[in-house]
Amino acid sequence: MTMTETVERPVADTREAIEQGRTALGIELGSTRIKAVLIGPGHEAIAVGSHDWENQFVDRTWTYSLDAVWSGLQACFAALAADVREQYGVELRGTGALGVSAMMHGYLAFDAEGELLTPFRTWRNTNTGDASEQLSELFGYNIPHRWSIAHLYQAVLNREEHVGRLAHLTTLAGYVHWKLTGQQVLGVGDASGVFPIDTATGGYDAGMLAQFDQLVAGRGLSSPLAELLPAVLPAGEAAGTLTADGARLLDPSGTLQPGAALCPPEGDAGTGMVATNSVARRTGNVSAGTSIFAMIVLDGPLSRMHPEVDLVTTPAGDLVAMVHCNNGASELNAWAGLFAEFATALGAKADTNTVFETLFRAALDGAPDGGGLMAFNNLSGEPITKLHEGRPLFLRVPGSSLDLATFMRTQLYAALATLRIGMDVLQKAESVQLDRMFAHGGLFKTEGVAQKLLAAAINTPVSVGDLAAEGGAWGIAILAAFLTDRQPGQSLDDFLTGTVFAGARLDTAAPDAVDVAGFDAFMQRYVAALPVQQAAVDHT
């Protein structure tokens, strides 16, 4: 049975699968929530758990403490175990396979004793501009601000004391995996946000490694870069087992037993590709949450470097063009909170889902071009528009109509605008072809709204459906299952298409000509108003 079939597995069968360890567990540390999904033999989600958390802005750096990582993981696993207990009447003592994913990129640096040298620097930080620019020029390859190598080189440029004591650097997923297994490895998709990958070899680009070592010679690093980076593994390769210490880290109660096989740890971009069956060439997906990004699997290399486009890989190692925007739905969430507060002040009772659905559906009746309204959703810096810090803004021209429908359409347009800039590079400058585009994430929960506007923004049909109901946590669970369930020689694409997603249901929205023209007009005003956004950063 596939995860898309409607026939429910009997509770007794699921209980037996749990007791026999014929399950896979996926855990993903997202920007605002840690989520765990347990899947059964048919790859359907059979239990879930979650824990909300939030990053901190400390000394002008976006970070999470390692204490918050582990307390959050333990709370998440406890919620999952409670769900298993409530639904099936058994304790979750083990699982056949396990996978960890997390927000991509960033910088976690450790010394030889495994001690953290500097607070975790997340993908959200944009204070690596000098490093990004210099490395991109050196390699002839776009190195985004948030990549681990940009953080490392910026630390070298800043002459940070910790550089001389650095013994190992990794991503958040790599760190958690290391502590659960003792293995310092990364899935190739996550590794491609650490340092450029040579898709022919499946490892870090040897020529660029040599260039970097030459660049930093005599500037503090004690080892060649290759010795500081985690090993790279493709999907389907064994990446260690859950140790006794690792099991206690996840479950201090001692109920969870060691021994689960772990797949290579991945980033949330890679798990999003898996969760939407978008690992084949000429397929793509858009993920929209705290950040928003598009992943397009390419037929071949691009003609030249573009600062708006990152080159990463699928979890299987195929080349992907990634348009990553630091700012997604957070400003929309803030406005929804304001409207909910107003409703409460009026004495109305409206839950969060109702507030969002009401506001989003109103946007469908808004002026197609935004009606003279303009919004910027930047809470943090946005490299695509060369914005080093964020200042959310809403403005309008005199005589514009400030109605709810157009206001909400403008806010949704703003959440998609930076993505559009990057997609223009791929679709217009590089003539990249797409056979299908999937959309997932919180922005698309209200049926037919953000999906319709995204189709207009990129002038491409956009599909949503039951592909990614549990998101990236389900995606990494599928990668864990791929490790243990695949047939000899079976590719990840074949496993997803032929086994996991057989019979998947999709709803596809074609671009509407009026909305396409309206979004084009909005984008002309958006780009023209970017100096206003920069002025807000400069003067507030």
Overall description:
With 540 residues, the chain is α/β, with parallel strands linked by helices. Among the domains are: 276-326 and 422-509, 2-Layer Sandwich (Nucleotidyltransferase, domain 5), CATH 3.30.420.40; 330-417 and 513-539, no CATH class. 39% of the residues lie in helices and 18% in strands. A hairpin with a 5-residue loop joins strand 17 (310-313) and strand 18. Helix 12 (352-363) crosses helix 13 (404-429). The longest helix has 26 residues, at 404-429. The radius of gyration is 23 Å and the shape is globular. The relative contact order is 0.13. Residues 285-482 form the Carbohydrate kinase FGGY C-terminal domain.
